[in-house]
Structure formats: structure tokens, C-alpha cells
Amino acid sequence: MAVEEDTRRTPEPPTEPLTEAQAERMFADMNDVIRAGEEMRGLRAEMIRLFADLGWTQDRIARLTGMSQPAVSKQVTKHKGDAPPPLSLDRHDTPWLEGRLWGLAEEISETLHDAAHCTRYVNAVARGRKHFTPQNVDELRRRVEEDLRLHRTALPDGHRHAYDEISRALDTAAPSAPTPTESPSARRTLARQIQRARLRDEA
After folding, report:
1. Most confident among 32-36, 155-159, 169-173 (mean pLDDT)
2. Rounded to whole angstroms, how far apart are CA atoms 187 and 122?
3. What share of the chain is helix, strand, coil (3-state, %, to 5)?
């Protein structure tokens, strides 16, 4: 039995060597995971600073984040004096608007379930299979607009209002350079979360 278990634990080496293309895909997938982890840590730091600026105690933030109080204190001290993250949705740089569109699409997808045209795109973005290229953003806009047209009675009016606002702004927005404390990815994620929270408050 022990011999069989050892055999199961030790996989046989591949009979064919990996091609360069296969290795490239593997490393690209690994890099995406690493990058996503770094970006989420950065976003968490932004959120900690935001709630500290709003007057939340460090003990409360530590409990919600699952971090120790000294770790939260270190994050707050590190960014003390920095400009606070934006709370208003009224921002017009491209990553921010893409994040708002992403959040809106997620809300539509969850409301309509499998009937939403944007669901597959939302899932692909969540898995890192779709990135925010101009072509992908245009495709997501088309799918969201189609869902809003076909399911007008099933979706709150706030969804259409948010889409019209985002769409107009995207048509005139210019990409902004990342700031030292906010990468485009962090801005997208923060805008997505604020947009979703706003839509739920309005529902």
C-alpha cells in the first residue's frame, strides 16, 4: 500500500517537453495571478486609508479586514497626509469609467441571472480572460445596452441612468496616467465597488 501511495504522490514526468508557447502561457497565467494579488493588496491599503479618513477606528478596520491592529496602524501611518481616495462617482478618467461600467454590468448580470447578455463578459473579466482594451470595453458597452433595452421592466431606472452617464463620459474621456498611489487597475476596482454600492442604495 505504501508503495502505491508513493507512486500516486510522484507524478510521471511529461513524455513531451513543453513548447515555448505553452511555457509562455503558463508564465502569463502565473503573472496575472501575482499581479492581481499585488493590485488587491494595493486596493485594500486604499480602502483602509479611506475608512480611517472617515473616522473609523483601527480596531474596527482590523476586524473587518482580518488584519491585526498593528498592521492596520502601519498602513494608516504609511499613507498619512496623502490625498484620500475618491468617494464620488463623478470622475472622468478612462479607468474610473471602465470600473463603473464593470460594476453596472455585474449588477445587471446578478439581477437577470443567465438571461443577461453581459454575463459571459463579466465572468471572463473576473477570471482575467478579458482585459480592459478599447475593443473589449466597446463590446461590454454593447452587451450592457442590449440588456437594458431587452429587460427594461426588470431593471431599476438607476441602471439606465448610470449607463447613460458612463457612456457619455467614455465617449469624451481621455486615458489618465496612473498616479503614485492609484494604478488604473485599482481605480477600476474602486469605481466598480462604489458603483455597485450606489446602485444597491438606489434600488
Report:
1. 155-159
2. 17
3. 70, 0, 30
What pLDDT score was predicted for residue 203? 64
Number of residues assigned to the chain = 203
Which amino acid does the sequence have at 181? T
143-153 residue pLDDT tens: 999 999 999 99
Q: DSSP code of 181?
A: S
CA proximity to 43, closest of 194, 186, 178, 192: 186
Residue range 81-116, pLDDT digits in tens: 665 555 567 777 899 899 999 999 999 999 998 789
Please tell me the distance from the alpha carbon of residue 159 to that of residue 188, in angstroms, as a whole number. 18
Query: What's the pTM value of the predicted model, to 2 decimals?
Result: 0.63
State the Cα–Cα distance between residues 11 and 150, nearest whole angstrom: 51
The helix (H) or strand (E) run that includes residue 203 is none
DSSP, residue by residue, 109-176? HHHHGGG-TTHHHHHHHHTTSS---HHHHHHHHHHHHHHHHHTTTTS-HHHHHHHHHHHHHHHH--PP
